[in-house]
Amino acid sequence: MSVGNGYLGTRGSLEGQAPASDAATLVAGVYDRISEESIEELAVVPDWVYTQVYAFEEKLATAPVSILRQVRTLDFKKGLFFREWRHRGRNNRVTSVRFLRFASLADPHALVERITIMPENYRGSISVETGLRICRDCMPGLEITGKLVHPNRNGLTVEARTRFTGITIVETQKSRVVPGFISAEHGSRVNDFDIVEDWSWIGDAGQIVTIEKFISIFTSRDGNNPLQAAHRHLRRLEGRGFNGLLRDHVAAWEERWRTAAITVAGDEEAQHSLNFAAYHLISAGNPGDGRVSVSARSLTGSIYKGHIFWDAEMYILPFFIYTHPPTARAMLMYRYHTLAGARRNAAAKGYRGALFAWESTGSGADMTPAAVLDPKGEIVPVLSGKLEHHIDAAVAYATWSYWNATGDDGFLLQAGAELMVETARFWESRVTQKGGVYHIDGVEGPDEYHDEDVNDNFYTNCAAACNLRRSARVIEYLKENHPIELARLQERIDLHMSEPDQWHRIAAGIYRDMETDSLIEQFAGYFSLEDIDIREFEPRSAPIDVVLGHKRTVASQVVKQADAVLALYLLEEEFTPEVIRQSFAYYDRRTAHGSSLSPSIYGLVAARLGLMEAAMRYFRLASRIDMTGGNAAGGIHVAALGGLWQQVIMGFAGVRIKREGISLFPHMPEKWQRLGFSLLWRKLRLEVEVENGRHVTVAVAGKGECSLGIHGRPLQAMAAGRKYVSLWSGETWEEFTPWQK
Ligand code: BGC
Description:
The protein is of the alpha+beta class. It has three domains: about 260 residues, Glycoside hydrolase, family 65, N-terminal domain (Beta-galactosidase, Chain A, domain 5, Distorted Sandwich); about 290 residues, Glycosyltransferase (Alpha/alpha barrel), CATH 1.50.10.10; about 60 residues. Helix content is about 35%, strand content about 25%. The protein contains 18 helices and 31 strands. The longest helix is centred in the N-terminal third of the chain and has 35 residues.
């Protein structure tokens, strides 16, 4: 139920505070620490939705006995959060209260709430206090440096500072009663933990009073004078008014849905979860700030402390690349801005180039905790920060994919090429050569159950080879197309033209002998581990590694999440269909899906294999992670939502993206009568529709032409302004032909 715009996120908590409703507003990039030595985490800034209503001097509290009706509604399409509440107080007095809030997508610094109050069956005094509340128990806590109230044309203001990172946060508020026949008294107060405006009046039964509240928020990350910026901005918000701000916000959401929407006919649950996914993905990204990216729980909760993982590149970025490239670009610029930290990480470990932080915040320094407590209260060391080096390949993969899809050479020259070079340099220094073969020893692959110095993790080896190859190709591209800029880059980062040749050599020589004719071994020695049938432990109430214990898990073939299977998806063209089929079946039986990143990838590969029952089972598993409540309290699993988008587009529609163009090969769930979505590709917008699994149409809009085709057949040239169709012959998809009405 959170609202957000990538700049900030506000949890769907109740306005009046309730024991089971943790209010929090998180601002991307506003990290602090609990102590000098601790790792950074997102700070909770003052709660702007704090409102308390009094009727006949009785505080309306959300205690179960007094609730006649309580409905919370999130409008995915418009980004609006509604709450409707009928409260029965003393002497059977019934008050109806409604709230509508949004974090503007049109103006990321603007927060807006409308409060509507109506005494239903009595006449009497009503008062409302609404303001900015400081979280007293939140860690890390803010240092409050200023509080200001009326009379003052700037409204209420709280100024706070993070204790260790020294970021200033300013929130200002102004509220007003919508003119009517009511005359309300107005005042304001500063308390220890809040600063509020009061409105009070004598209400009549059936008489509605509406209060509109505008909040502006700026931090020192936005400029030198956040106080002045917030005050100026607040005046602008007042001038635009509630309806104007609402219109701008709704128009911005409409614009985003135009490319983000996936429509499914015949499966309401799927449609609902895909809307939920797109809503939270759109809310998570900020195209306007290249110094932040999307963290593991976006801005909706405190688990993982707002840290940015490979989730951003491998799971979330694809959604933005093909539906809103400016956000994808900003997320990649974030990695560029953390390059200095990544270079230091690599150097500290004795490697060249850059090694991105496994858990990253503002500077690029690694923020992975050294240890955590497991559910049994035991201290477990966390090795991912030291060993999950595949993060570099993820950054390179996303850099390449963004550039390939957009043709944004400007980005390549500004940042992308440098990301490609520094990640390739890392792998070059990371591999060890034995008899002409390159090994990557002592890593942790995506499967975090095997975290103790794994050698030749198949996924890592393949991803590193792909990184090296693509980095070399980027330099070759620049040599041909932008020689002057390449010369400048060479000078800036001391790049020698012998380096790309060496990258090609290593890529070609990376060890892959864990791949036989029919099966991939997840890492060297994996097949000799204890083979445990995880089905024997179903149903489980705890993750399998907790059930088995760490020691036994490490010594077994139980897999936490898509690892070898992720390689089957990303590097499909490198494997025979037999290897894909057999390996999928093998790992399917051994994977516990202990990470929310896992089910969508299994579902995707299953869909490509035409295993529709498994594909659908995984789709439901992935889509219910947050929809069923489970452990969403710590925040939305936004990578799982990005995975869901990929499962539909790359799995059910079977889209494959190549340098030369796009191919697809739909495998539709039987229930789905129609699937529709758009993809942005270079200067074009492709509208794809699959009808009853029998025909697929692609309408091409924009400028120019593109190469598109059915997977497994040669690509075909398609021109903008036209529509093409391919029919299912009963056995396969036929070539595209121009659409005739
Ligand atoms: C997964 C990682 C993921 C992290 C954050 C872990 O449980 O194993 O792959 O990056 O969660 O979502």
